């Protein structure tokens, strides 16, 4: 088969998508911006507090062209690729590049269990470091820290005081606040937000406190 025939025969790259929707970014440094969310299907982790378990299965196969076109039709500059765990699908990497090439400000929400070294450097990588109470602390890929750039972000979802002390020690051990912004967020229904804020103020910890704005607005409704 010659090169032209091979190119014709090769299937177009595609991804399994749970949903694509327009909402307000509820987390990270882009909080408040109108944002198109591209939620990929599937995740190898099972965090005990997961709020998107509906994305573990199902979904529809979409070509990269279809996804980029759907994003464009929704008309927002900011795009967040999320999951599930988006990097569990290898064609997530070319999608991220396509979205950047189209002029979007692109962020990636990833668990930190997958290699982030191949992600387009224009993407803001929001790396979620799993705490002991998440039930997935053993999945943290610590070598990812060496790939972070100043515009990236690290997130800790905390379930209680033990998680807070653990995260505080990790921040100090790895000098995380010298690498990029660090975000501490309370797990909904497990840690009172006001209590976490009080701990941060008492310790003068140079990290950003965050709530999930979209949940304040709409609760746990999918697609919001």
TrEMBL record:
Obligatory cofactor(s): [4Fe-4S] cluster; Mg(2+); S-adenosyl-L-methionine
Keyword Protein biosynthesis listed: no
Pathway membership: Purine metabolism; 7-cyano-7-deazaguanine biosynthesis
A Gene Ontology biological process term: tRNA queuosine(34) biosynthetic process
Chain residues that bind [4Fe-4S] cluster: 43, 47, 50
Any coiled-coil regions, as ranges: none
Binding site for substrate: 24-26, 39, 82
Presence of the UniProt keyword Kinase in the record: no
Cofactor binding notes: Binds 1 [4Fe-4S] cluster. The cluster is coordinated with 3 cysteines and an exchangeable S-adenosyl-L-methionine. Binds 1 S-adenosyl-L-methionine per subunit.
Enzyme class: lyase
One Pfam short name: Radical_SAM
Gene3D superfamilies on file: Aldolase class I
Binding site for S-adenosyl-L-methionine: 49-51, 84
EC number: 4.3.99.3
Residues that hold Mg(2+) according to the record: 52
InterPro entries documented for this protein: 7-CO-7-deazaguanine_synth-like (IPR024924), Aldolase_TIM (IPR013785), rSAM (IPR007197), rSAM_QueE_gams (IPR027621), rSAM_sf (IPR058240)
Domain Radical SAM core: residue ranges: 30-224
Catalytic activity: 6-carboxy-5,6,7,8-tetrahydropterin + H(+) = 7-carboxy-7-carbaguanine + NH4(+)
Keywords associated with the record: 4Fe-4S, Iron, Iron-sulfur, Lyase, Magnesium, Metal-binding, Queuosine biosynthesis, S-adenosyl-L-methionine
SUPFAM superfamilies noted in UniProt: Radical SAM enzymes
Subunit structure: Homodimer.
Family: Belongs to the radical SAM superfamily. 7-carboxy-7-deazaguanine synthase family.
HAMAP family the UniProt entry points to: QueE
Function as written in the Swiss-Prot or TrEMBL entry: Catalyzes the complex heterocyclic radical-mediated conversion of 6-carboxy-5,6,7,8-tetrahydropterin (CPH4) to 7-carboxy-7-deazaguanine (CDG), a step common to the biosynthetic pathways of all 7-deazapurine-containing compounds.
Classification via NCBIfam families: rSAM_QueE_gams
Protein name (Swiss-Prot/TrEMBL): 7-carboxy-7-deazaguanine synthase
């Amino acid at each position: 088969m010659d090169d032209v025939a091979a190119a014709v025969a090769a299937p177009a790259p595609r991804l399994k998508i749970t949903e694509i929707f327009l909402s307000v970014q509820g987390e990270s440094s882009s909080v408040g911006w109108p944002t198109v969310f591209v939620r990929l299907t599937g995740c190898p982790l099972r965090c005990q507090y997961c709020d998107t378990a509906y994305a573990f299965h199902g979904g529809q196969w979409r070509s990269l062209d279809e996804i980029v076109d759907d994003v464009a039709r929704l008309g927002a500059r900011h795009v967040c690729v999320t999951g599930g765990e988006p990097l569990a699908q290898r064609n997530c990497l070319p999608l991220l590049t396509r979205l950047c090439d189209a002029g979007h400000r692109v962020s990636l929400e990833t668990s930190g269990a997958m290699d982030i070294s191949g992600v387009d450097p224009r993407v803001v990588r929001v790396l979620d470091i799993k705490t002991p109470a998440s039930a997935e602390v053993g999945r943290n890929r610590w070598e990812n820290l060496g790939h972070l750039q100043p515009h990236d972000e690290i997130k800790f979802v905390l379930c209680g005081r033990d998680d807070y002390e653990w995260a505080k020690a990790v921040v100090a051990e790895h000098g995380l606040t010298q690498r990029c912004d660090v975000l501490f967020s309370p797990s909904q229904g497990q840690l009172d937000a006001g209590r976490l804020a009080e701990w941060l103020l008492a310790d003068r910890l140079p990290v950003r406190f965050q709530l999930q704005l979209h949940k304040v607005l709409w609760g746990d409704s999918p697609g919001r």
